[in-house]
């Protein structure tokens, strides 16, 4: 498959009013997913359930594989500038392709530069100089057409780039009307009809533009006869049409990328690894930490070699990897960079972490309230929804470093007490005693403490729910029971969990050979591979990323 970036055609630079470098605007949504089909028949990959066999044989089996089904390694070498630039291009293509695959809302927009930015000032100065030069040339006696001919030539190439391969008649017509050799001859004889050529260009634009640009093109027909202003507007609308074409190309490219997503992303990352020896350093540290965590929690058992020596059993690969993915829920981005294999999902992971942090705080507050008051407010879903919504609004921004959580929780407790008193009195219950309100406020504000029992309890239950979901086949359909204390945030937590599992499963499909290679090295680098043993398979990877 050719590089994704090559499909997004590079259009000629235009001196238009709004000429700006292309930027990529993405929207992170809860259901960011794709219809990517899983790759099959990869004996060295763990995208299928059998590849997660936690037996030692799964680490040591030697089976042939296709070119990109497993990572290859090579001796260390000196990195050249060409290698660095090539790796950067591969990473750019990988990032763009991944974003198109998993983010249905991905699209390209023109950036909006700040009026006071240096870039905006430089752009304005350069453009003004160009248009002033064009105006001066056209006003000369006799007029000069050097800049005007360059504009016409560039416009011709842009219009041709919009044509489909089969539009031969229109292509021929454009080449005949905007024949640069003929126009230069006319310029020498001062017989160039600039106004007529501009009108023809607007007519062609009306045939090629998307329906959403019809009004913009219509305004061009109503533009004043002043040629320079008209060309400015033509280039402005052509900029918009270019963005439309790029986004149409992205939409057209998405099904093809989804069909080949696993192979494409794996091949691109393999190319980066081959050129950059340190490309898996952070991933190795991540898996090493997860392995140590799993080994620490495993019981010591007698080795099956008959010598009666005690030791740790060999951990299941999918248990190690899943533990690593669970750690992402509380990842400290200030202390450690993400594993390289997850960099393309950093924005989504950060957003998921922020939303999960808010949900856990809301759940802690609600658990304290319902535990303290009990029966008089139980069985009232409308009240529960109001309390949840109120708490969520007041704690919005909890992830921000300058967010004053203690003050916000104090406001939450005050608002909750008012809402509870209102609900209780409406149903002929006595209002909350002042001492109970003080107790409630103290308990709610105490969840800022790191070792707060309510906070620790819910944190453990949330992580356990995500662990179970990761190990559940077709988890977006077969949802496990919600742990106690989380029922009031069940819809929001389930949505987050399904999104997270979809992201993780796709990541496993792409990068599992690299993970297995690292895990093999960590387990067996200093010892001979032990004998094989049977163990359960990982049931969590059944489908590619598709959270819907």
Automatic annotation (TrEMBL):
Protein species of origin: Salmo salar
Recorded superkingdom: Eukaryota
Biased composition (Low complexity): 58-76
UniProt lineage: Eukaryota, Metazoa, Chordata, Craniata, Vertebrata
Region of interest (Disordered), residue spans: 15-79, 529-548
Keywords noted in UniProt: Membrane, Transmembrane, Transmembrane helix
Compositional bias (Polar residues): 19-28, 537-548
Family: Belongs to the TCP11 family.
Gene: LOC106576448
Name of the protein described by the UniProt record: T-complex protein 11-like protein 2 isoform X2
Gene Ontology BP, a term: signal transduction
TM annotation in the entry: 361-384
InterPro entries in alphabetical order: Tcp11 (IPR008862)
Record carries keyword Membrane: yes
